[in-house]
DNA sequence: TTGACTGCAAATGCTTTGCACCATT
DNA sequence: AATGGTGCAAAGCATTTGCAGTCAA
């Protein structure tokens, strides 16, 4: 999802497209990693130094509510980290470097569904994170 | 794992067994849910009203470091919740009630290992949480 | 025009810490 | 006796919020 797709979705949701928002959306769309609020703030400031931390928090909060971004709380970091909501996937975090690798698995998806069903639940959300060390 | 097992492990790890710690360990051992720091504090105070929040934080931190308890950060709650480290399992959280159901799955365990290996990693830790709505 | 949005600074609220005293080993 | 542990209160810190001004629609 690129910046203008995000803008469109925001407008469709009734959000006003202001300069700070445009910058934040472009930062998010351009990120290949999983930036923290602080990261987004730093990067946004490079494009428009007047942007405030409060706006970054407020905007990320809105985007999360709209489901346009995902808010992650990996257990190695103490802050939330964001990612534009594209295709469904999970993460493997390198516990030595903090590097995040994305992966998908059809089998795990099915298994999750199955487990929830067996327990009498409809699966709505899920969090799956693997933490590992690089093999030598 | 009962309270005296925990006490033994703490002593083995070099921790001094003080009155507040004994109370906190017994609260943890007696919990059938996944109490927050606040919960542990409240319950501990019933046994010994002089216990301070600082001690609860410090003790839970130590126990987590020793691996005697697990620190969870379920995404529906905004605070960490603890659980005595017994057998390996995962959680399904009822998004309407907050109720936590534990489950295990041999297949998922294998799959996790497999995925990490395929990505070139040795699996060290993992977090798997399902969020669902009770089926009607 | 007007309701939403923004930056700023102050407030919040969980968590951590410094300190002096106390208890376990 | 020595070291680690404790309660208290203050400090930290990420996040939220009140407010007055600003701007998109």
Structure description:
Two copies of one chain form a homodimer. The first copy, chain A, has a three-stranded mixed sheet with strand order 4-3-5. Chain A has a two-stranded antiparallel sheet with strand order 1-2. With 136 residues, chain A is of the alpha+beta class. Chain A is built from five helices and five strands. The first copy, chain A, folds into two domains: 3-84, Arc Repressor Mutant, subunit A (Orthogonal Bundle), CATH 1.10.10.10; 90-132, Dna Ligase, domain 1. Chain A is 44% helix and 23% strand. The first copy, chain A, has helices at 3-12, 19-30, 37-47, 53-66, 106-118; strands at 69-72, 81-84, 90-94, 100-103, 121-134. The relative contact order of chain A is 0.13. In chain A, helix 1 packs across helix 2, helix 2 crosses helix 3 and helix 3 (37-47) crosses helix 4 (53-66). The N and C termini of chain A lie far apart (35 Å). Strand 5 of chain A pairs antiparallel with strand 5 of chain B. Chain B binds a DNA duplex (25 and 25 nucleotides) through helix 2 and helix 4.
Strand element count of chain A:
5
Shape of chain A: globular
- Fill in the CATH topology of the largest domain in chain A: Arc Repressor Mutant, subunit A
Q: How many domains would you count in the coordinates of chain A? A: 2
Number of helices of chain A: 5
Helical fraction of chain A equals: 40-55%
Helix and strand topology:
Two copies of one chain form a homodimer.
Chain A: H1 3-12, H2 19-30, H3 37-47, H4 53-66, E1 69-72, E2 81-84, E3 90-94, E4 100-103, H5 106-118, E5 121-134
Parallel strand pairs in A: 3-5
Antiparallel strand pairs in A: 1-2, 3-4
Helix pairs in contact in A: 1-2, 2-3, 3-4
The structure holds a DNA duplex (25 and 25 nucleotides).
